[in-house]
């Protein structure tokens, strides 16, 4: 871990990351098979682990502080709070190596702020079935980061849903039936419990259908599922 910067990441960047990561209080396997918890936290996470919302908040702030320190180490030109926050979200999502090798960083360090802002939109692909695939969720996230970097409001898409319950049985009735329907579609055990196994199955299904693999059955995923 790098030395933590003394100046915290701006609240707009914190809100942006929260929006796109979603909150998970029980550890689950991400599509890459990495145990993950909270707002996309992976360091030291073990399956079966649970945390509180307050702990998730602190983990996120620590992770973003680390990302911000990496940004400050790579960028050689002055940045305002929004620019630093946007780049911290970028690093949090893609890693410092991606920023370090990017045309975005080269343009930025040459003082070409506007051209650098235009580079966010190039980082919208994920590998699906061995092929680079453009994912709508990454398109939306990069657009929000670019807007924040440029000083505009980092508007998040209104269709971004809240996560479905991750553990425990869904209430009996229509919701229970819908969870079972989702489980049948993604090939999970149709037990009505939207737990980590179902979340992982949903993420894999989303990967295969060119959707953001966030494990959230929101409007875009529901439409693709025919629900």
From TrEMBL:
Q: Does the keyword Plastid apply?
A: no
What are the BP-aspect GO terms?
A: cell wall macromolecule catabolic process; defense response to bacterium; killing of cells of another organism; peptidoglycan catabolic process
- Identify the stretch(es) annotated as Disordered: 155-175
Gene3D superfamilies per UniProt = 1.10.530.40, PGBD-like superfamily/PGBD (1.10.101.10)
Organism listed in the record: Azospirillum lipoferum (strain 4B)
Q: Which family does it belong to?
A: Belongs to the glycosyl hydrolase 24 family.
The entry's protein name is Lysozyme
Q: EC number(s) of the enzyme?
A: 3.2.1.17
A GO MF label: lysozyme activity
Q: What SUPFAM superfamilies does the record tag this protein with?
A: Lysozyme-like, PGBD-like
**Catalytic activity, reaction form:** Hydrolysis of (1->4)-beta-linkages between N-acetylmuramic acid and N-acetyl-D-glucosamine residues in a peptidoglycan and between N-acetyl-D-glucosamine residues in chitodextrins
Which keywords does this Swiss-Prot/TrEMBL entry list? Antimicrobial, Bacteriolytic enzyme, Glycosidase, Host cytoplasm, Hydrolase
Q: Which InterPro entries match?
A: Bacteriophage_GH24, Endolysin_autolysin, Endolysin_T4_type, Glyco_hydro_24, Lysozyme-like_dom_sf, Lysozyme_dom_sf, Peptidoglycan-bd-like, PGBD-like_sf
- PANTHER family recorded for this chain? LYSOZYME RRRD-RELATED, PTHR38107
């Amino acid at each position: 871990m790098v030395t933590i910067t003394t100046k915290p990441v701006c609240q707009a960047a914190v809100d942006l990351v929260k929006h796109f990561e979603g909150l998970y209080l029980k550890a689950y396997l991400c599509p890459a098979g990495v145990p993950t918890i909270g707002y996309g936290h992976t360091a030291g996470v073990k399956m079966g682990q649970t945390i509180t919302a307050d702990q998730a908040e602190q983990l996120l702030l620590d992770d973003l502080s680390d990302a911000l320190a990496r940004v400050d180490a790579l960028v050689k030109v002055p940045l305002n709070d929004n620019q630093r926050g946007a780049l911290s979200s970028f690093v949090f999502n893609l890693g410092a190596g991606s920023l370090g090798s990017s045309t975005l960083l080269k343009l930025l360090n040459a003082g070409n702020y506007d051209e650098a802002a235009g580079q966010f939109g190039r980082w919208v692909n994920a590998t699906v079935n061995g092929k680079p695939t453009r994912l709508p969720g990454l398109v939306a996230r990069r657009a929000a980061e670019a807007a924040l970097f440029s000083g505009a409001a980092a508007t998040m898409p209104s269709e971004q849903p809240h996560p479905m319950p991750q553990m425990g049985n869904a209430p009996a009735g229509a919701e229970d039936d819908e969870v079972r329907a989702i489980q049948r579609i993604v090939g999970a055990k149709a037990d009505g419990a939207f737990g980590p196994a179902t979340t992982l199955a949903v993420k894999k299904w989303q990967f295969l259908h060119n959707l953001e693999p966030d494990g959230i059955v929101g409007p875009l995923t529901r439409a693709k599922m025919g629900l």
